[in-house]
Amino acid sequence: MRDLSGVFKAYDIRGIVGEQLDAELVRDVGAAFARLVGGPAVVIGHDMRDSSPGLAQAFAEGVTSEGVSVVSIGLASTDMLYYASGSLNLPGAMFTASHNPAKYNGIKLCRAGAAPVGEDTGLADIRADVEAQRPATEGVTPGTVEERDLLSAYAEHLRTLVDLSGIRPLKVVVDAGNGMGGHTVPSVLGGLPLDIVPMYFELDGNFPNHEANPLDPKNIVDLQAKVREVGADIGLAFDGDADRCFVVDENGDPVPPSAVTALVAVRELAKEPGGTVIHNLITSHSVPEIVAEHGGKPLRTRVGHSFIKAEMAKTGAIFGGEHSAHYYFRDFWRADTGMLAAMHVLAALGGQDEPLSELTAEFTRYAASGEINSTVDDQQARMAAVKSAFEREDGAVIDELDGLTVQLRDKSWFNLRPSNTEPLLRLNIEAPDETMVADLRDRVLGIVRG
């Protein structure tokens, strides 16, 4: 029996091409996915990595071998694949390793309507099917493959959700990181009152300029410099598969994803007063405060798209945001789309005269540490030691919804979570000012790192 524990993750399939992931395995995954979801068809898209077209073709061969047809949309961002799944009401497969280096690739799967397929919602079943090397279903007529270009339809749909036609002219630097933003941005943002200054729009899965991971500060240095150089109003950076978007203001300073979450939430609540807005537990406390102040219902969840999408489906939430710059919209089949979040920020900026730094200042109320990783031998023992230390603190409120979250009396709080894939503990801290963040950081890390 195959052991696929190294490539089947909580939310997707991912590994090093040629070592962990090859055409044979992907063909078997395609067949297993077809058996899981049934007909009539599966929609398939892929990113710009050298290995993506071949792996997507192998997956299609597996799907069609089970009598299920394929709609191939070719080059796509992940949110474009979600658009295809939602608008066509078909299950989907996106070939991408997002921000990972060039040697990696992977598959993000969804059911019809862009409903997520994670470990608890089908991925474990597919893994078991493939590991058992289940034989192909006998006597089936192979499915067909249809190629369809949905880029313009995707762009048109997004432009029905956020109208940018009447905003004041803006100069916008966009760093696509040689990823799929270079494919989608011209179609979505072209022809609007936007002077787009493109950076690294050439599709290149070898990422010659920098990693397509804007969460790492070193990867937005070029964007920050260009914004200052050309006097832009705003800078946008997309990750490799363009489902996440990071924002910098006119000074080149990063706008925290929590501030973007709060800004978009206010706009969505203006359309639907009293709506529910989801935020994960690492998002700034400014988000639930601002949602409540604007008459909305904030709802706190665990980290991860499967939890957020499940809560959105259960509660009818209008919007959800994460600290990692994933933004989820009910109007987009509850799927995450960095492009739509960027359009909301552009609409807010272009709909008034203040610079972005002033516009977003009201959404940034606290100081934050960012994610601090510590390599540890025993994650649970270290977390238990931290919990024990803070349980004795007067007024401390502790919960374990996702890792360990400790709320202190002085409005400081931290979350400590184990990595699912590495021997790491991830620490996030927020407090009223930088000094309080540093003090709390030193206290927690003193226990974690011993």
List keywords for this structure.
single chain, 450 residues, alpha/beta, Alpha-D-Glucose-1,6-Bisphosphate, Chain A, domain 3, 4 domains, 7-stranded mixed β-sheet, 6-stranded antiparallel β-sheet, 14 helices, 23 strands, 23% strand, A-D-PHexomutase_C_sf
Number of helices: 14
Which regions have little confidence, pLDDT < 50, spanning 5+ residues? none
Overall number of strands: 23
Shape label: globular
The CATH architecture assignment of the largest domain turns out to be: 3-Layer(aba) Sandwich
Separation of termini?
42 Å
Q: Which class do the helix and strand fractions yield?
A: alpha/beta
The helical percent reads 25-40%
Give the CATH level 1 class of the largest domain. Answer: Alpha Beta
Q: What's the oligomerization state?
A: single chain
Fourth CATH level, the homologous superfamily of the largest domain? Alpha-D-Glucose-1,6-Bisphosphate, subunit A, domain 3
* Residue fraction in strands: 15-25%
Biggest sheet architecture: 7 strands, mixed
Mean pLDDT: 96
How many domains? The number is 4
Task: Please give the radius of gyration in angstroms.
Answer: 22 Å
CATH topology of the largest domain: Alpha-D-Glucose-1,6-Bisphosphate, Chain A, domain 3
InterPro entries: A-D-PHexomutase_a/b/a-I, A-D-PHexomutase_a/b/a-I/II/III, A-D-PHexomutase_a/b/a-II, A-D-PHexomutase_a/b/a-III, A-D-PHexomutase_C, A-D-PHexomutase_C_sf, Alpha-D-phosphohexomutase_SF
Keywords: Isomerase, Magnesium, Metal-binding, Phosphoprotein
GO molecular function: intramolecular phosphotransferase activity; metal ion binding
Cofactor: Mg(2+)
